[in-house]
Amino acid sequence: MSSQDIPEENLPAEQGTAHGAVGVADDKNPFADPGLPPHEHRIQDIDERAARRSERAVALMFTVSMLATVGFIASYVTIPNDKSIYVFPIGHISAMNFALGLTLGVALFCIGAGAVHWARTLMSDAEVADERHPIEASPEVRAKVHADFKQGAKESAIGRRPLIRNTMLGALTLVPLSGLFLLRDLGPLPKESLRHTMWAKGKRLVNMNTNQPMRPEDIAVGSLTFAKPDGLEETSEEFQQEIAKAALMIVRLQPDNIKDKRELEWSHQGVVAYSKICTHVGCPISLYEQQTHHVLCPCHQSTFDLSDGARVIFGPAGHALPQLRIGVDSEGYLEALGDFEEPVGPAFWERG
Known about the structure:
Blueprint: H1 43-46, H2 48-78, E1 84-87, E2 91-94, H3 95-121, H4 139-156, H5 162-174, E3 205-207, E4 224-229, H6 239-246, E5 248-252, H7 261-265, E6 271-275, E7 287-289, E8 294-296, E9 303-305, E10 311-314, E11 323-324, E12 326-328, E13 334-336
Antiparallel strand pairs: 1-2, 3-4, 4-5, 5-6, 6-11, 7-8, 8-9, 9-10, 12-13
């Protein structure tokens, strides 16, 4: 049904509109204002039953949004962190993450869709043209605003009442700090966990690829090998958290090529062990140039010299890679002689 099929007396009254001056194009004014086209009424403007259907549709979408929000809260409270589900074609994913993403997406989508449907079908769609006017205020208005501000400041006595002024500023400064306590719900405080890894005296170095303990003779000069602590299994719940701190790069150099005295003392027959975690933003380092003994972080190109204490020679990293002191046990396997003496990875403000 269109507006042409409705008797004239049933059509809603037109709202007053400012269409501007309609001009006619000629040689002097080729871009004359053609004016606005005739307004056509929507079915909701004509038929109250259609308007009520649109109203119910909008209310339904808002109601679904509310239910989805309740579902989001229920999912967060009830679904265990370690529960996984199979979703085709994605595969196995976290049940909580899937539920939170689905419910939040539905809630936001229904709010947006309801608002759009409301605006398109029930709100006024009459086009109104208005002449442009200068954005800046006139000199008289600016003068009045300045005078009103000065008068208000004078009447408030803020200049003569320093006690009120200072306590007000203190209150406005401290109130936002209350929001910092909400950050405690983001997870447990790290405490000392960032300063320590799984490495300890007697922990064997295990090859990340073969999952076997490493001997010095297994490492060729100029090669790069990655290692993890003995006992850290990929099936462990804490694997990702621990390997992010304990991952090692194992490189064998000629002892004569090692420039740093401490690096030579902490190595074994030229085998050196450094943290694999870049000290810039924590990316894993994996690019090694055996001629220069440089390793490169692929994220932001921080470059470290493994023959000189892994010091930074290029890029945004702030400090050298931590070295792990190593030796061999009674069976000839490489082992750690302790933990890193400094935190691995990027700096943090409590580090000191």
